[in-house]
Amino acid sequence: MKTLEKQKVVIIGGSQGIGLETAKEAIAKGADVTIASRSMDKLERAEEYLEGKVSTYQLDGSIEEDVKSFFDTFDKIDHLVVSSSGGYGGSIKELDMKAAKELFDSKLWVQMHAVKHASPKMDKGGSIVLFSGIVSKKAMAGQMPYTGVGGAVESLGKMLALELAPIRVNVITPGFIHTSAWDTFMPAAQQEEFFKGFSETIPVKKIGVAKDVTKGVLFFLESDYVTGAVLDIDGGQKLV
C-alpha cells in the first residue's frame, strides 16, 4: 500500500546509510523524495542506487543561508527527515574544542536550520523526524560531544512538538548501526570484527543495519497520532 502517495519528503543526509534507505522506502510508498547532502559524489551514487527516482541537492546544512535557499525552492513539504552524520570524540582533558563544535554544527545546527526553514512550508498534516544517538541514554567515556548533541536534540524534539503543533515532531535514537558512515572511522575488515563482537554484547544478538532504523522513521511519517516521541532503536544496547 502506497501510504505516502504523492507526498513530498525531504531528507537531509539522505545520500548514504539510514537516510538513503529511508528515501528508498518512501519512494516505494509513493512519495516524491528529495535528498540533500554535502557530497556530490555520494549524491550521484545515491541517485544511481535509487534508479533516478529522486531529486538531489548539494547542501551544507550548517550554513543557514544555504538551507534557507534550499527550502525556498519548495512550495510545500509534507515530511522532513534530518539524518546528517558526523563524528568526533575523546577525553574531555584532551578534547579539541574546535572539532567538538564542528560536530555540533554538523548534527545539532543542521537540524535546527532545517526545521526553521522547512516548517513554514508544512501544513497541519506534516511531520518532522530528527536524530539523536545512543549516548544520550547510555553514558560512554570519551563521548562528550555526542552526548551533548544527543541530549539537545531529544529536548529540542519535544519542545518543537509543542511549538509547531499540529505539525508532528519526533526523534529517533539509534544505537550502533552498521552503515557506510562507519567507513570514516575504520576500514571494512575492522568494522566486521568490531560489529561481530558488539552483537554478542546486546540482547538481540545481532548487528543493526540501516533498514532497522528506517522502519522507525517510516512509522513516524505514517502515524498521525504520534508526536513528541523518542524512539530508541538500539537492540537493547542502553540496557547493558
UniProtKB/TrEMBL annotation:
<dbReference type="InterPro" id="IPR051122">
    <property type="entry name" value="SDR_DHRS6-like"/>
</dbReference>
<protein>
    <submittedName>
        <fullName>SDR family oxidoreductase</fullName>
    </submittedName>
</protein>
<dbReference type="InterPro" id="IPR002347">
    <property type="entry name" value="SDR_fam"/>
</dbReference>
<dbReference type="InterPro" id="IPR036291">
    <property type="entry name" value="NAD(P)-bd_dom_sf"/>
</dbReference>
<dbReference type="GO" id="GO:0016491">
    <property type="term" value="F:oxidoreductase activity"/>
</dbReference>
<dbReference type="Pfam" id="PF13561">
    <property type="entry name" value="adh_short_C2"/>
</dbReference>
<keyword id="KW-0560">Oxidoreductase</keyword>
<comment type="similarity">
    <text>Belongs to the short-chain dehydrogenases/reductases (SDR) family.</text>
</comment>
